[in-house]
Specification:
This protein has 208 residues and is an alpha/beta fold. It has one domain: Rossmann fold (3-Layer(aba) Sandwich). 56% of the residues lie in helices and 12% in strands. It has a 5-stranded parallel beta sheet, sandwiched between helices. Helix 2 crosses helix 5, helix 4 packs across helix 8 and helix 5 packs across helix 8. The relative contact order is 0.20.
């Protein structure tokens, strides 16, 4: 069985995937890792979509904040563009895993409802998560502070709040897209985080 876990950045997908591996022994892979494979063989000229978010990251911090707050749909567009490009590595990977009879969880922002819905001949389950909570900026700050390797650990409060705006708006987008394709969406802000994680795992695997 192929399991998909998608949603915006910073909503708990990596933590959920680690719990699934620990509790249920199902291997997982991030779309970031699969995208990195493509980056080793495709340059920006041949695959510009693969580097869409990198172009955003090359902007100054002030420019990125303005874009996330004032042109959120454009920033979401970068994420979608990169997700579609990354799918060139995701789809062959999951088809090979299915042919070999292995269960695997694929998680990441590149797991988009529109792409998963196209897999008519793949046996899969998919759940999308998001966080539309107004206090999500505090969650992002807390998570970054707890991890010495987190790239947002030293981010300014303005940057984190702008990123929270992006996450909320992308969560709305993912929810709408998931429902339009008949796929599950779970809002992480409506229950305590641990309970929300259990709900996601139960929805995805049929067990806690």
């Amino acid at each position: 069985m192929i399991y998909f876990l998608g949603g915006p950045p910073r909503v708990g997908k990596s933590k959920i995937s680690k719990l699934i591996t620990t509790r249920h022994g199902i291997g997982s892979v991030s779309t970031d890792s699969l995208g990195a494979v493509l980056e080793n063989v495709l340059d920006p000229e041949r695959a510009p979509g693969l580097y869409a978010v990198s172009r955003f990251n090359e902007m100054t911090a002030a420019e990125r904040i303005d874009l996330m707050v004032d042109e959120t749909s454009r920033r979401i567009g970068y994420q979608i563009e990169e997700g579609r490009a990354t799918w060139r590595a995701v789809e062959p990977f999951i088809r090979r895993e299915e042919e070999e009879g292995r269960d695997v969880l694929v998680e990441g922002v590149a797991v988009l409802p529109e792409l998963v819905a196209q897999l008519e001949d793949i046996d899969y389950r998919a759940v999308f998560v998001g966080n539309r909570g107004e206090s999500h900026g505090e969650n992002i700050r807390r998570g970054a502070t707890e991890d010495d390797r987190d790239w947002m650990r030293d981010a300014s409060d303005d940057y984190i709040q702008a990123f929270a705006v992006l996450v909320r708006q992308m969560s709305h987008f993912i929810q709408k897209e998931a429902h339009s394709h008949g796929l599950a969406y779970i809002e992480m802000s409506e229950t305590p985080f641990g309970d929300a994680i259990d709900e996601v795992i139960h929805s995805l695997l049929g067990k806690k």
